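Notes continue from the previous slide.

Worked example: a multi-chain complex. Inputs as given:
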Amino acid sequence: MGKESTKTFLGLTIARQAAVLVFLTTVIGLGVNQVRSNRLPLIEDWSHEARLKTPSGQSMVISLDEAKALFLSGEAMFVDARPSAEFEQGHIAGAVCLPWQEFEVFFDSVFPDLLPDATIVAYCDGETCDLSEHLAEELYNMGYENVRVLVNGWSVWRDAGLPTEG
Amino acid sequence: MIFTGGVMMVESAQHKKEKYIKQKTPGKRTTVARLVLGAVFIFAGIDKIRHPGAFSEVIYNYQVLPDQLINGTAILLPWLELILGGCLVAGLWLPGAIVLTNMLLLTFFGALLFNVARGLNINCGCFSTSTEPVGGTTMAWYVLRDSFFLLLGGRLFFALRRMHSDDERQKVFQGP
């Protein structure tokens, strides 16, 4: 009859109600998801390779080796999607600054460098950075069909000892 | 003397009874906290329910869940928010709803702090599923706002405990 019994009773009430609420959520959530038109698959591949695909199903992700080869042959234009302050602190040699957050501001000055047929390699920094992904998608939609993304570009490039400047 | 003593005893019992009632009834501020938090949860749930794909992007950007759990969370979490918000506003199943609400708030706060700590500027996805990048001040604002929600949640939790705690005052009503 003391404190313990009432506390246990409250604990049981909480557990029972919480379990029913979670169960209700699961039934409603999954049920609605099944019948709606914009339903999500329960499990989706969120890897960079799977996420970054052109409408034709080709992955936009480029490996460091491929990027290096394109760099050495001078076939690729590197586009830095990070904020301009980070670009100024250091970037891939010859890259142009096109921060995704200020895309409209910078695009005009970068435009002459972006040849429609050249390969464009967008990069930012960090395994999870999505600035270059957004930038690549935007450029692709603008008609630059050979745009690629070097995931975690700045870090892997610098760590591989490849040419940088700034 | 005896008579006065009797009155005093009655008053004392009356006092105990009032204190007991006060303990067992939520104050105005607690009720306001419950309604505000409930409305916030309903509001937060609705936009996410409408745009599940955009919300899954938001969860992905948080980078705290394994890929396999992203979509399941995007499907279920908004409904949990809506249902909990409904319970809070309607005053239904408060023990379960309050505890779950606090667990969610703590999880959100933890995920947000985790990303502030590692310097990742993410759109919190709290009320809208837009994934526009945000600056450092916005992150600070998210932390402030989430702290406020946690205060509300904490208040409800302690009111719940107070109202369900058993102590001497309860014996006033227990009779012989």
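Summary box: Helices of chain B lie at 2-24, 28-50, 52-62, 67-90, 94-117, 136-164. Residues 136-164 of chain B form the longest helix (29 residues).
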